[in-house]
Amino acid sequence: MTQQTSFVLGLVGAGIGASLTPAMQEHEGSACGLNLTYRRIDAGIEGFTSADLPEVLGWARRLGFDGLNITHPFKQAVIPLLDELTDDAHDLGAVNTVLMRDGRLVGTNTDWSGYGQAFRRELPDAVHDRVVLVGAGGAGSAVGYALLHQGAEHVSVVDVDRERADGCVTRLAKVFGDERVAVAGDVAGALADAQGLVNATPIGMLGHEGMPIAADLLRPDLWVSDVIYFPLHTELVERARELGCRVLPGGGMAVFQAADAFAHFTGRTPDADRMIQYFSELTAL
Predict the structure, then answer these.
(1) Rounded to whole angstroms, what are the CA distances from 167 to 140, 159, 162, 175?
(2) Is residue 87 pLDDT above 90, yes or no?
(3) What is the set of active-site residues?
(4) Which of 67, 117, 51 is nearest to 252 (CA)?
(5) Nearest to residue 196, comparing CAs of 117, 151, 132?
(6) Burial, 47: exposed, middle or buried (Cβ in 10 Å; 0-12, 13-18, 19+)?
(7) Contact 90, 121 (CB under 8 A)
(8) Could you tell me which residue ranges the Shikimate dehydrogenase substrate binding N-terminal domain spans (predicted)?
(9) pLDDT one-digit tens code per residue, 187-198
(10) Rounded distance, CA 61 to CA 55, Å?
(11) Average of pLDDT values for 158-172?
(12) Is omega for the bond preceding 231 within 30 degrees of 0, making it cis?
């Protein structure tokens, strides 16, 4: 059976003009000898909402798309429109990758696996640590899932929205057990008993400058991670690095979630080092 060599893919979201995913996917496709086209389908430009997703998916299917990445604000809204979910997407209640296979729409999630791969690459000795996770939205849930899946002893979840924090913890506890994840109202207290800190809030990205926690709560023996990659080195990452903390910026998650999606879409194993190098070139411009 001849292996497919041409692919039409897309990213569905709002305000996605700055996304580096299209460039990364097309560059890796070219390097693998594929004819791969990747399009942005921007709700902000095209003027559609969650209510229009059935039409968007139908349109993509009729035009011969092989798959779609899904980003904010559609990762939950797309789920009822799919024929099948992988276990991880079901556990998270969020889909960022839709595969179009034999007329069926299959949803999966590479946010968590992407973060996990980036983590193990940079901080392999920290996989069993106790962690404070700030931010319980979609990114936070994916990070929490990755941390617990790879063996974190405990994850304490902090969010300004208590209901959102409770929802995140309930979802993760259902998979990993009540004893390994809990809501933390007191950041200082939670950090005192932790080896790592992850920011999964928008605080620190362009337009949302600042830090998600007080700077004086950082200490040299903590490792510090951020999911933001615009800018790549947030104030949190810079402050932590100055203190001597080991840091994991958001670029790793961005690259590896794209690499995992590429593998799902094409059936090929991407070259992670090549994708990291290309991401570095894109973010250095």
Answers:
(1) 11, 11, 9, 13
(2) yes
(3) 75
(4) 117
(5) 132
(6) exposed
(7) no
(8) 11-98
(9) 999 999 999 999
(10) 10
(11) 97
(12) yes
Task: Reply yes or no on whether the pLDDT at 2 is more than 90.
Answer: no
Write the CB contacts of 212 (distance below 8 Å, at least 6 apart in sequence).
134, 135, 199, 201, 203, 204, 236
Is the Cα torsion angle 86, 87, 92, 93 positive or negative in sign? positive
Query: Tokens for 23?
Result: 């460039």
Question: Which residue is associated with the tokens 């969650």?
Answer: 50
Could you tell me the pLDDT band of residue 285, with boundaries at 50, 70 and 90?
low
Any idea how long the chain is? 285
Beta strands in the chain (DSSP E): 6-13, 35-42, 67-70, 84-85, 97-101, 104-108, 130-134, 154-158, 181-183, 196-199, 223-226, 246-248
The answer to whether 144 and 170 are in contact (CB under 8 A) is: no
Distance from C-alpha of 83 to C-alpha of 98, rounded to nearest angstrom: 10
Tokens matching residue 135: 């931010």
Give helix then strand counts, H and E, for the chain: 11, 12
Tens digits of residue pLDDT in 245-284: 999 999 999 999 999 999 999 999 999 999 999 999 999 8
Per residue in 110-157, pLDDT (tens digit) is: 999 999 999 999 999 999 999 999 999 999 999 999 999 999 999 999
With beta carbons less than 8 A apart as the criterion, state whether 44 and 15 touch: yes
Mean pLDDT of the chain: 96
pLDDT at 42: 97
Catalogue all structural domains in the chain, each as residue range(s) with its CATH number. Answer: 6-109+253-284 (3.40.50.10860), 112-249 (3.40.50.720)
